[in-house]
Design goal:
By secondary structure, this protein is mainly alpha-helical. Helix content is 61%, strand content 0%. It is built from seven helices and no strands. It has helices at 29-53, 60-71, 80-101, 105-114, 116-121, 128-139, 147-167. Helix 1 (29-53) runs antiparallel to helix 7 and helix 4 packs antiparallel against helix 6 (128-139). Residues 25-174 form the HPP transmembrane region domain. Keywords: Membrane, Transmembrane, Transmembrane helix. Pfam families: TM_HPP. It comes from Actinorhabdospora filicis.
Length: 178
């Protein structure tokens, strides 16, 4: 029987030629249903805390993080270290870029690209953090953005992923904390 923990991680392979692409096998419907439920639970958690607290946590990069935790809970980029350090370094990169250039589409592009370096150097790749850097590059929200919403949303999503991992059979999250 295939469970969430035995399903291979979601991967993408760039084909060398059009005929050499590797296709990820379609998961069983039970796995699809459980992972969809996990995504829904994470997103509803973000929405509920946003609504109750007035904190703006339901932003697109954090919605993407919730999806990654649900769809690929064992992937390195969905682990707590990658989420925390990736999101914080992405936001910090965006803030540094906008401190020099001001907010613009160009600052967003540069911030998103430059956010790759600290994530890789910190061994904390987290693709939605590039979107966080781009958002900061467009808006220049100020240094408190690192705490609210970046740190708060990241911790909330990790805690929610952990809770979902305890509630849903076969959904192990996180795989590791370091």
């Amino acid at each position: 029987m295939t469970t969430l923990s035995t399903l291979p991680p979601v991967t993408a392979t760039i084909p060398a030629s059009p005929t050499s692409a590797t296709v990820t096998p379609r998961p069983p419907l039970k796995v699809v249903a459980l992972r969809t439920l996990a995504a829904l639970m994470g997103l509803l958690l973000l929405a509920a805390v946003t609504r109750a607290s007035g904190l703006w946590l339901f932003a697109l990069p954090f919605a993407a993080t919730a999806g990654i935790i649900a769809v690929a809970p064992s992937a390195p980029f969905s682990q707590p270290r990658s989420i925390l350090l990736g999101q914080l370094s992405g936001a910090l990169t965006g803030l540094a870029v906008t401190a020099v250039t001001g907010p613009s589409i160009w600052a967003a592009a540069v911030a998103a690209a430059l956010s790759t370096a600290p994530m890789l150097l910190l061994r904390a790749p987290h693709p939605p953090a590039g979107a966080t850097a781009a958002f900061v590059g467009l808006t220049a929200p100020g240094w408190l953005f690192l705490v609210n919403p970046v740190l708060v949303a990241s911790v909330l999503l990790i805690a929610g992923g952990w809770a979902v991992g305890k509630l849903l059979p076969g959904h192990k999250y996180p795989v590791y904390w370091r």
